[in-house]
Description:
Its cofactor is FAD. Keywords: FAD, Flavoprotein, Oxidoreductase. Residues 36-215 form the FAD-binding PCMH-type domain. InterPro entries: FAD-bd_oxidored_4_C, FAD-bd_PCMH, FAD-bd_PCMH-like_sf, FAD-bd_PCMH_sub1, FAD-bd_PCMH_sub2, FAD-linked_Oxase-like_C, FAD-oxidored/transferase_4, Oxid_FAD_bind_N. The strands form three sheets. Strands 13-10-12-11-15-16-14 form a seven-stranded antiparallel sheet, with helices on both faces. Helix 8 (232-242) runs antiparallel to helix 10 (284-299). The two termini are 31 Å apart. Helices cover 34% and strands 20% of the residues. It has four domains: 4-91, Uridine Diphospho-n-acetylenolpyruvylglucosamine Reductase, domain 2 (2-Layer Sandwich); 96-211, Uridine Diphospho-n-acetylenolpyruvylglucosamine Reductase, domain 3, CATH 3.30.465.10; 219-326, Alpha-Beta Plaits (2-Layer Sandwich); 333-437, Alpha-Beta Plaits (2-Layer Sandwich), CATH 3.30.70. It is of the alpha+beta class.
Amino acid sequence: MTDPRLASLNAALPALRLLTDPADLQHYGRDWTRRWAPAPLAIALPSSVDEVQAVVRWANAQGVAIVPSGGRTGLSGGAVAAKGELVISLERMHKVLAFDAVDRTLTVQAGIALQTAQDAARDHGLQYPVDFASRGSCSIGGTIATNAGGIRVVRYGNTREWVAGLKVVTGSGELVELGRALVKNSSGYDLRHLMIASEGTLGIIVEATLKLTDPPPPSNVMLLALPSFDALMQVFAAFRARLQLQAFEFLTDVALKHVLAHGAQPPFAETHPYYVVTEFASDAANESEALAAFEQCMEQGLVSDGVISASDTQAAQLWRLREGITESLAKYVPYKNDVSVRISAMPAFLQATQALLGKQYPQFEVVWFGHIGDGNLHINILKPDAMSQADFVADCERVTKLLAKVLEAHGGSISAEHGIGLVKKPYLGCTRSAAEIALMRGIKAVLDPNGILNPGKVFD
């Protein structure tokens, strides 16, 4: 530990665990983007709120920038430390602190994994309904810092809907308690919601009180094969008219190809161009309505084939076809777009986007999938082996500028659920006005007066 700044931190906090091994710097200094070479100063692993506060105060005194770190499953470069920042990982702060049966809340430390929080809720006969494929590795703090969505937003909403209270260490090292799990609270600004989706630029989330709800009823999963892209929103409308959908997810034949190559089982004897995975409560009335919607879509030529789960095992197999996409593409280090529009604008946006990408990416394999039920689309572009990474990213960024204009025309967002981070920072102006961005900068200046928290992320 040759850096005198680290020596002073070690002297001030001798119990703080500090990592400086090159392998640790590499591991903790990046997220799933893999586009920036990690170069953090060190990795701090506090075990208490007091230690987090002390580290932030030290960082202010030393002029050291801080990158808060959760499970580092992000896809926008929000957890990248490439300029000598100190990474603060909360992975040692992973406890369930309290359960309140009356208020139906679960209080946890921010480093706890999403799946662990889900399991804890289930142990009390309830559920924390935010869910997505990286549930085993992402942290609660990270999901709150990005307002994570996932596969059941169509039924339960985003993370924001399920955060009753927060404890946050601000950029000056002050601990603030926000929300206090009150159902009604009209006493001034709700700073809790300001911290949600702030990507670690306003404060470090150290504790969260999560709302819980009744466990989901037994459900059925149906996989639908579609003959055309134009049928997608019509099928969604037909099923939503008859059912309270838990999920409605879309993928292409290209996405399915990669998941099957990764070990999943083919669902049909024939290949179809588009697929939908939908879930709904499995009582007799819903099953009847689902079959009626399926038959209606078949008669109208909107659906080519379908299968409904007959067991939990089969349901899991059908979900794997959707949830396994990101993992199956990881080896390609794809360039990712994560966009959203209002559901009513989705048909026109899909048509315009399909035309744009077909014209601009004739040489690339493009993998589409997304949460169509909440207006969120994921676009993954795969790099050809013969192309350099720099040339590939440059070409993709050229097209993203065009995509951002399409989003602006349809009132959409350049980031639906992955945050802005470094990747989408150049396109923030297509989603937010200059006045809004100026207000964001002003808010950051108040909560992080020395600009030490995740500098360079979201905006400069």
